[in-house]
Amino acid sequence: MKTISEISKEEIIKRTSYMNDNILYLDLETTNDGKIKDVGAIFNEQEIHENQLSKLENWIDQCNYICGHNIVAHDIPILKNILGKDIFCNKSIVDTLLWSPLLFSENPYHKLVKGYKIVNDLDINNPLSDCKLTKQLLLDELNRFNDLDPGIRKIYSSLLANSIDYSGFLELAKFPNQIINIGDEINRIFKNKFCLNANSKSICEKYPIELAYALALMHTESDKSILPPYINKTFPNTQKIIDHIRFKSCEEPTCLYCTSNLNPQKALQNYFGFENFRKFDEAEEISLQETTVRAGLSNKSFVAVFPTGGGKSLTFQLPALMKGSLTRQLTVVISPLVSLMKDQVENLEKRFDITKAVAINGLLSPLERENAIDRIEKGDIQIVYLSPESLRS
Q1: Dihedral angle, C-alpha 241, 245, 250, 255, nearest 10 °
Q2: With CB atoms 3.0 to 4.6 Å apart as the test, which of 12, 107, 124, 296 could cross-link to 319 if both were Cys?
């Protein structure tokens, strides 16, 4: 039997063996018009920090892998324009930014955590320091990938191996692209996490990268996790896929996901503790309040008119909370009544223990406003009340 120290030693050797491959880490600092002003790179324990490309060009020629943070969208296009596109032929690309939402979906590395700027906040971006941070991040990502459920690794490999922007990481992780029934594997791993009748096979074929990001978000335990802005910008269909498979009810009683998560009456009890929606006429088969909530769960526009005190706030709050939890989207409520916003936010928190709403208006102090926006950016908020004038800023 192996001792703990022996196991730990083996684990350390295994997890650092990734970094023995022929990897060039690079980072470019550019002007607003795309001109290079500073270059950082690490290769075979050597470093450069200069504004010339001659040595970097030589290293690119020698290496097998080229790694950087946001290298696909930023550094490589610039270098191709200067050095020629052929310089990257037969090179495997590893972009730690692209893999971050897949491997650290609870809190992706949108930006590198730059400790050197904490020491000196006035320090300009240092490309060599960023290369060192990227090297550590890559090791974290490779170790994290190794720790994933084997089924999830197979799914990621099947969805991403055919993309040159992602295949380099899989090669470095030494994970082969195994032939699997991707639809069956997704249904097994993500059972009851999306609609049973969603056409996942068609999505796999048309949007494999977007589906990978959608699945990573669905695998998170906290509903605070949201898609990074650059994923929404670069792969806008990712959010559409999440909406389609998580927030479009198939209305089939055999679909456990839809009957459990997209049932307004169950949600009413879960969030507000009410067994039934409010009725104005006992003869109504479905109350106006429930009808309005169901309309809010659809993608259709509608107008609802309620008597004063008729419970209209719940008709947009409930769909907003459901959508925020299932698809991680934010609902914006625009109202000129500042006191009403305050009352509704406080009522949700004090009466129902719902802390997912915040109001932003002219009465907030700069610190309160900053805190509210920070909570929105971190995914902690699902409903934001805005005054009309706040829309201008």
Answers
A1: 170
A2: 296
